[in-house]
Specification:
alpha+beta; five-stranded mixed β-sheet
């Protein structure tokens, strides 16, 4: 397979995310078809429409690349680049008309992120990153915050869809952290939450049970913006990790220690 022109591929991903976001923005004010994938996990007709648009673009511009997408599945490619696609991160929000959702596209190869794009069509904020090339929001460089202690931090998290039936549902961790920081936000779209860590709106994000398409784009932004990523034990975070902690780096060890007291 020929070498990837990362700059041109990033331009394609940005354009594709913007087109998918425009589709979602229009659909937000219209009647939506909503189905259940599980007891509490929704999928809408707009998830599928956005994913179709994105997959068609990748097939056109990146033939031979593998695709792992939330709705149609797929697999990480062997010896070829893989696109990780969440066509509508924050489906529950979207289904209720709550304006916090995004399109997420990440390109990985040999377990390393190459490109990431997260687009918030409500605020028209386009987050992007290229390995070794930094991270931006609408073309402006991103940098993580300089908050140095957990006591001064604003943090986000999320809960698994099946939290009502599992014991490791993140509630104990939530209670621990909420009592030690300036606030914990649970907005319901992990790709945006992690992108907010990269730009310094949030100082950290932790979550369990995330899928590769949730994290495949935004985690690169944290790296490129000077932040830190790990699993719950401080080891290097990867797509197969089941627990993720992303932070500005300064509060990382303090947050990890606190989270581990709750387990």
């Amino acid at each position: 397979m020929p070498a990837i022109n990362l700059a041109a591929t990033l331009d394609m991903a940005i354009e594709t995310a913007r087109r998918a976001g425009a589709l979602l923005r229009v659909g937000l004010s219209q009647q939506r078809q909503i189905d259940l994938k599980s007891a509490y996990e929704l999928v809408t007709d707009m998830d599928r429409a956005s994913e179709d648009l994105i997959v068609d673009a990748i097939h056109t511009y990146c033939p031979g690349h593998a695709i792992l997408a939330e709705e149609r599945g797929g697999a990480v490619g062997v010896n070829r680049p893989t696109w990780l696609i969440d066509p509508l991160d924050g489906t529950n929000n979207y289904a209720h008309g709550f304006p916090y959702f995004a399109v997420s596209l990440g390109l990985w190869e040999e377990n390393q992120p190459l490109l990431g794009v997260v687009y918030d069509p409500v605020r028209d904020e386009l987050f992007s990153a290229q390995a070794g090339g930094g991270a931006q929001c609408n073309g402006m460089p991103l940098h993580v915050s300089q908050v140095a202690t957990l006591a001064g931090a604003l943090i986000s998290t999320g809960f698994p869809y099946d939290y009502g039936t599992r014991t490791d549902n993140n509630l104990a961790e939530f209670n621990k952290v909420q009592a030690r920081c300036q606030g914990v936000r649970r907005a319901g779209a992990a790709a945006l939450d992690i992108a907010y860590v990269a730009m310094g709106r949030l100082d950290a994000h932790w979550e369990i049970g995330l899928k590769p398409w949730d994290t495949g784009a935004a985690t690169l932004m944290v790296h490129e913006a000077g932040g830190q990523l790990s699993d719950a034990h401080g080891e290097d975070w990867g797509l197969s990790s089941t627990r993720m902690v992303a932070s500005n780096g300064l509060i990382h060890d303090e947050l990890l220690a606190l989270l581990n007291t709750a387990q």
